[in-house]
Design goal:
Blueprint (H helix, E strand, L loop, with lengths): L4 H7 L10 H8 L10 E8 L11 E5 L10 E4 L3 H9 L3 E3 L3 H6 L8 E4 L4 H4 L3 H4 L17 H10 L1 E5 L5 E8 L4 H17 L10 E8 L5 E3 L6
Parallel strand pairs: 3-4, 3-5
Antiparallel strand pairs: 1-7, 1-8, 2-6, 8-9
Helix pairs in contact: 3-7
Length: about 230
C-alpha cells in the first residue's frame, strides 16, 4: 500500500521496533494524525488464544468512560411497552416484523447497532444473512439481546463498544478520536484492556497479550507494551 508524503513524515516519528509505554504511545498518537478530519483512534490487540476453539473465544462488550466520539444509531426490535421504553431511552428506530422487508428487500441500514428483546429473536433471526456479515446480529454476550432495552440503548449511546476475535485472533476496537485528550484516550484504552483481561478464557495458555497496537484511521501503527495489563 502506497502512502503519501504526510504519512511518510509522521511515520518517521514512530520507532517500529519499539514497544512504547502507554503514556508515550498516547502522546505519539496525537502527533501522527495526517487527515483533515477528526480521525478515530483504534486499538488492535493480538491475543494468545485460538478462536477456532469454542472454549477460547473472546467476545463481549464494555462501556468506554469517554465514549468513542461517534454518534451511534440504535435500532430496537421489540413489542408492546418495550417499544416506548426504547424510544424514551433514545433509540433512533424501533419496530417489529414490519421492518424485516425494509431491511431485507429495500437495503435499509440506517443504524449502527441492533438491540432485540428475546421474544423478537425469532423474527430477527430471519435477517441473519444480511445482519450477520455486517456484524449487526444482536447477541446476548454483547448485551444486545435483553428485556432491559432502555439500559441497553443508554449504554450504547454512552459509549458501549463490542469486542470479538477476528479470524486471526485479533480484537479491533475504537478507543476515541484524535481530538480526545491524552487522559481520555488512556482511560478508554485501560478500560478496554481491563475488560479483555476479565474475558480471558480459562483454556488460554501462555502469553495472553501477544501484541497491542494503536493507530489513527490513516496513521502508522504504534506498538504498546502490554506489561501494564499483564
Amino acid at each position: 500500500m502506497k502512502h503519501g508524503k504526510k504519512y511518510a513524515e509522521v511515520a518517521k516519528l514512530v520507532d517500529r521496533m519499539k514497544r512504547y509505554e502507554v503514556a508515550e504511545a498516547i502522546a505519539l498518537i496525537k502527533k501522527t494524525s495526517t487527515a483533515k478530519f477528526d480521525e478515530t483512534v483504534e486499538a488492535h490487540v493480538r491475543l494468545g488464544v485460538d478462536g477456532k476453539h469454542a472454549d477460547q473465544q473472546v467476545r463481549g462488550a464494555v462501556v468506554l468512560p469517554h465514549g468513542t466520539g461517534k454518534q451511534v444509531r440504535v435500532l430496537v426490535f421489540a413489542k408492546g411497552d418495550k417499544l416506548s421504553e426504547a424510544e424514551a431511552a433514545g433509540a433512533d428506530h424501533v419496530g417489529g416484523e414490519e421492518l424485516i422487508p425494509k431491511i431485507q428487500n429495500d437495503g435499509w441500514f440506517e443504524f449502527d447497532v441492533v438491540v432485540a428483546t428475546p421474544d423478537m429473536m425469532g423474527v430477527v433471526g430471519r435477517l441473519g444473512r444480511v445482519l450477520g456479515p455486517k456484524g449487526l446480529m444482536p447477541n446476548p454476550k454483547a448485551g444486545t439481546v435483553t428485556m432491559d432495552v432502555a439500559k441497553a440503548v443508554e449504554d450504547i449511546k454512552a459509549g458501549k463498544i463490542e469486542y470479538r476475535l477476528d479470524k486471526t485472533n485479533i480484537i479491533h476496537c475504537p478507543i476515541g478520536r484524535n481530538s480526545f485528550t491524552e487522559e481520555q484516550l488512556t482511560e478508554n484504552l485501560d478500560t478496554l484492556m481491563d475488560a479483555l483481561v476479565k474475558a480471558k478464557p480459562a483454556a488460554a495458555k501462555g502469553q495472553y497479550f501477544k501484541s497491542v497496537t494503536i493507530a489513527n484511521t490513516m496513521g502508522p501503527g504504534i506498538k504498546v507494551s502490554p506489561l501494564k495489563y499483564a
